[in-house]
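Hi,

I'm pasting everything inline rather than attaching a file, because the server keeps stripping attachments. The sequence lines come first, and each chain or strand is labelled.
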Amino acid sequence: DTEVTQTPKHLVMGMTNKKSLKCEQHMGHRAMYWYKQKAKKPPELMFVYSYEKLSINESVPSRFSPECPNSSLLNLHLHALQPEDSALYLCASSQVGGFVSYNEQFFGPGTRLTVL
Amino acid sequence: AQKVTQAQTEISVVEKEDVTLDCVYETRDTTYYLFWYKQPPSGELVFLIRRNSFDEQNEISGRYSWNFQKSTSSFNFTITASQVVDSAVYFCALSEERSSNTGKLIFGQGTTLQVKP
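And the predicted assembly:
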């Protein structure tokens, strides 16, 4: 199994809603990532988990709350979002070797989020 | 400072033409890693290739080839005999050794390739 799955594919939410994005991989990867991608822009890193521990938070607003319940799952909890948070949210995973950086990241298909 | 530049914003070719996507990078690290990803309209980023800074050997995979030149800090990607299915946004990315415990990728702005039948 060499894929990363993400649910839901599309999500529309109001600014007062609470929702969660889910990401799953079964490749035995121990690093998992959340990215945000606006239209016609490259992905922007939000969070990195390594061995189920948060290793990077790229100054993301607290209305985004990541969670890594186990080595295969990564969640992104959303609360009180703004319309400008509308974007494609991508999850990725990679191996963790002697140097994480050389391990290619495998991406999921993304969740297209619209905040009304 | 680390940076990846993809100067070509959009490229349009006719099927069967060859096309080269340019990528120029900046880094102070002597050890680094370069990547190319493809993003079709469906949204998923598809990994194409990884290159280590200490390996300048060019690579060919079917219709795809990559030219890595440290002297010019470039890592260009050529598609031979392009096909409509090659239409996508292509991202070049850099990962530095100093980020070795984070896996942080620095992406270029992407090049949108349109292959017309």
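Chain A touches chain B through 29 residues (CB under 8 Å).

If the labels don't parse on your end, tell me and I'll reformat.
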